[in-house]
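Key idea: predict the complex, not the pieces.
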Amino acid sequence: MGNRIELFARNDEKEMDIAWCPGCGNFSILNILKAALSEMEEITPENMVLVSGIGQAAKIPHYFRTNTFNGLHGRSLPVAQMIKAVNPELHVISESGEGDMYGEGGNHFIHAIRRNPDITNLVHDNMIYGLTKGQASPTTQKGTVTPVQINGVFLEQFNPIATAITMGATFVARASSGDPAQTKEIIKKAIRHKGYALVDILQPCVTFNKINTYKWFKENSYYLDENYNSENKMKALEIAFNTEKLALGIIYKNEDKKAFHEQLTIYKENKEPLFKRKHNIKELESFINSKI
Amino acid sequence: MNKNFKENISVVLSGEAGQGIQTIENLLTRILKDDGFNVFATKEYMSRIRGGSNSTEIRVGEYAVRSHSSNIDILIPLTKESVEHLKDTISSETIIIADMKNLKIDYSNAVDVPFFDIAKEIGNRIYSNIVAAGTILALFSTEKEIIYSRMKKIFAKKPELIDKNIEAVNRGYEIGEKIKNSGIIKIEIEKNSKIKDNILINGSEAVALGAMAGGCDSVFSYPMTPGTGVLLSLAQYSKSFGILVEQAEDEIAAINMAIGGWYAGARSMVTTSGGGFALMEEGVSLSGMIETPVVIHIAQRPGPATGLPTRTAQEDLNLALYSGHGEFPRAIYAPGNLEQALKLSRIAFETADEYQIPVFILTDQYFVDSYYNIEKTDLSEVRNENRITETREDYKRYILTENGISPRGIPGYGKGLVIVDSDEHDEYGHLTENLDIRIKMNDKRLSKLDLLRKNALEPEILGDDDYKNLIVCWGSNYETLKESLKNLKNTKTAMIHFPQLYPLNYDFKKYFEKAEKIISVENNATGQFSNLLKLELDAEIHERILKYDGTPFSAEELTERIKKAI
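Result:
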């Protein structure tokens, strides 16, 4: 196992100039993801792509050793979906913060779920904007005072879990950066899920969020019972709407839905990724010339 | 009012949305082409699904007629309002063939045909357009076998409709023969049997098919008139040619999807219009930064904002040229006719792949919606070279090279890792704030522009080699200007058309140096390309012929305006 974890570490790891604050939950998520991947023999740095947007969480691929697409703010999901669609042999993870995924990329979040692409969507959710220094994020709690929301946030808190279930997501989980052991297992299941998998990872921002601390998350969350049936959609929604105490674990899953690429006609007869296909110019020529 | 037509004729059919004007355009152009005539059709329509006033103009000629005419020889209106709508283009020479009683039209130069009563006798008012088609075809003396054979193809998927439609055509045909025999309208345009084997497509299809010749295997788009035509065509061909077609949730998603596609080895495009493209701008910048190709088709329409959604313009050259923040190279192509669209859309993919940049195909509503016959295409020279490299273990996506182009790897092909970052990055692709590397990377990206410029496509010059007057145009004005030039019969005058608008080879300056008077023709209010010529080639445009009312130039109108300008 030790060797496999090295696989995902940059060889200049010791000299890396990491942009995160000491104590940031991002470090923990980085280590959890590396550990999770190292335990999945089917995944190598070469056959996976880590796609991210912009923000502190979105820098994660740079501290990793794998194929990377660090694109624009809020746009990692459109990129990730089509990387998977044009080459289904790749394992694709789309990872960013909640501002990127639920705010700037909110429309993509909704519609990505509707497509059910076979990708894993990891969202670092610290309920605040870190990189721009402490403004409200879509998941900031009501009442939180920030340098912009000086009278406290009064907008409704975005509920990613309920939104995802409502949009037809086939794997919806919440995890905590403070619990590496269980979070690793949730992430592994998310990656192995055939279809869209959301893992909203609660994470403290030690610099800008003085409310939702390690202690707060511990006191305000609980793990779903072992006997919990995650295939009951209405029950899952009920749990999702309980924002007093945040449920951790796999809240909803549905393994019966086909993934986006499995429904595409381009893969009906030919399973090869697009880049391996030869275009038949002769056939195209006669097709054009038949348009009489 | 007896009239003879020997060289060409312009027939306009008009009605409201939902009356089947499009069906009749399709039917007539194909049958007349099958019969050996050169045909051209362009439509004018309103942004609505029902009602309003739509028209289609069909020009038929012994020689290729490929531009909009402001002259109507025969008008067949299916509503009274559409006659009102066209009153400025109806002249004393125009012959109207109409159901005068039902439409309550009063016009001296008219032939009364009870289209609606006949249609009702057949079973439904809806057949009136097919009755009218029959009348027109009789005037061209098209043999019934030619008509039937094409109709069977067109209605192949709805065989239950064929009998009634053939009856409608026959009833219209009888009347047409009577009109012909009376001598009111006599069409004596020469036919050429070779034309029946020509292809008949519109601009959207030409762009789509050209893209496919360039290896296009995926398209991502949010529907927007008039850019949707290319999406529809690719969707139609997708099953036979294995094209991934995805309607994105918005234009921002569309361009990011296309860039994601290219990153993973596909050859993707987006198609939109100005307003949709405005949303894609940050994606253009992303493509420039991460040196991941993307092909962007913009079918222009008048702006600003929603503007005139179903009309034409050449207003978005500046938008394409300056889109995206930061400085990076790009190429812009603008086909002048269908042959060029087939070729340039293919070249767009080759250029995008070779230089790893965003590449534009700029058309307009008039261009994408116009049909005409062209000769069969020859793709035997097309190599369709994929420039993807198999990566080695130590692969650096942005390795510094002499010409600025780094071999492009994709994830999952080779032993290396492909790292791209929208931040400034080092040779591996990792984010950096090292300012020396920043300069090297910026220089690397921009150096590709020199090569692009050197290899820019040559403009085409037509007319007198020994010109004094040089008329410049781009995009869809090509064929219109060609016809105007023919009308002018002016020696010492030539036209120059640029298939590639940017970048331009500085050497092209020579074409302007020998001209005494340079006139430009553009469908916009500010002369965007004229300004670019000044900027790129220091060419001074003396006179600008501009039009920005949402309609294309007609050959007649352009001829008059050039006469004044010279």
